[in-house]
User: Which sequence fits this backbone?
């Protein structure tokens, strides 16, 4: 009832008054962004643009990845650009001038390519059309044993000319249409500063052409990016820790397979008390995060730091993020109230090797 709602409001207001960490949401569409606002999100920390290409638009990504000629590729990009612009306008509007971090596309290819097995069966049973045969050859060529460690993120952006440029242009043109929009462009799966530089130059040129300002930053989600954060910060205006991938790569656990396979045995043996995909592993992943925060800020004082892996909404991990000097956590809309509360509790508990 009303009394209870008012009491909860007072608790949240108290937490907000004392916390130092900002709290953002992971949201990929205007509806989720609006919900996140109602839960108190102060921005979007992760908009996963590959989620915009599921469902009906999947075909467009397939056309792009499998394009046989530069002309086909350009046609696929031209079809995608206005759709993306509309997506971004909706999100900027929903966030009313708060920062919105848009991550350039990071699709594990196995989630987007046509089904290899289905096509193979068609071919083997003589039911394949000419188009099926062309597709099958292309899918075989692109097939990967470990898609989560394969042609994803910045790698895809560097391999498919025009893909990231299309997205950056859509972001810039959307921002120009929405007064007060605060876009932040984020490059995924970077392992080397050279990858980031190659993308950043083109992105900066497009932003200047359109006449829009945006921060350009990177995810820190490979161990190498964390270990070379001092160099990476030369080319990044912010870091956002992708602790889902960073956990996968630091432990060597496949995100796709591991939970079902042997985690229950590991929990039984006490190798960890809780899955490291749920609560940030302070001794391993956490040390990489701190090292990257310190070395990044040594290169670029005031470097903005956030986290957008699942850990951003986990209570214990929120405390660790506060203590590590991060500026914000970003989590799913439903976890925002708890993140706000824990950020307040972390501030009251004091502590923290603030690296700012
Ligand atoms: C991450 O790796 O932590 C992350 C936020 O990116 P995704 O889960 O989309 O790989
Ligand atoms: Mg990731």
Assistant:
């Amino acid at each position: 009832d009303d009394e209870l709602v008012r009491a909860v409001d007072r608790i949240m207001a108290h937490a907000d008054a004392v916390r130092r960490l900002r709290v953002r949401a992971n949201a990929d569409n205007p509806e989720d962004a609006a919900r996140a606002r109602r839960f108190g999100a102060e921005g979007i920390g992760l908009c996963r643009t590959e989620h915009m290409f599921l469902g009906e638009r999947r075909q467009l990504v397939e056309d792009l990845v499998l394009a046989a000629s530069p002309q086909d590729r350009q046609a696929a990009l031209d079809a995608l650009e206005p759709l993306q612009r509309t997506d971004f306008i909706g999100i900027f509007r929903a966030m009313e001038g708060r920062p919105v971090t848009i991550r350039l596309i990071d699709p594990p290819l196995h989630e987007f390519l046509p089904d290899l097995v289905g096509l193979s069966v068609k071919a083997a049973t003589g039911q394949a059309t000419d188009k099926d045969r062309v597709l099958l050859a292309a899918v075989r060529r692109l097939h990967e044993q470990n898609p989560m460690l394969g042609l994803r993120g910045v790698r895809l952006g560097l391999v498919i000319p025009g893909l990231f440029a299309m997205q950056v242009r859509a972001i810039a043109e959307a921002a120009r249409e929405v007064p007060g929009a605060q876009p932040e462009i984020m490059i995924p799966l970077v392992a080397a500063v050279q990858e980031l530089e190659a993308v950043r130059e083109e992105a900066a040129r497009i932003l200047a052409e359109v006449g829009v300002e945006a921060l350009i930053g990177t995810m820190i989600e490979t161990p190498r990016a964390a270990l070379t954060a001092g160099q990476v910060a030369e080319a990044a205006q912010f870091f956002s820790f992708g602790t889902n991938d960073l956990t996968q790569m630091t432990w060597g656990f496949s995100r796709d397979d591991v939970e079902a396979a042997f985690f229950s045995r590991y929990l039984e043996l006490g190798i960890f008390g809780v899955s490291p995909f749920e609560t940030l592993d302070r001794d391993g992943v956490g040390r990489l995060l701190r090292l990257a925060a310190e070395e990044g800020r040594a290169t670029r004082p005031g470097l903005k730091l956030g986290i957008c892996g699942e850990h951003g909404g986990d209570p214990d991990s929120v405390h660790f993020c506060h203590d590590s000097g991060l500026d914000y956590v970003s989590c799913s809309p439903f976890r925002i109230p708890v993140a706000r509360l824990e950020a307040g509790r972390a501030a009251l508990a004091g502590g923290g090797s603030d690296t700012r």
In short: The longest strand covers residues 182-187.
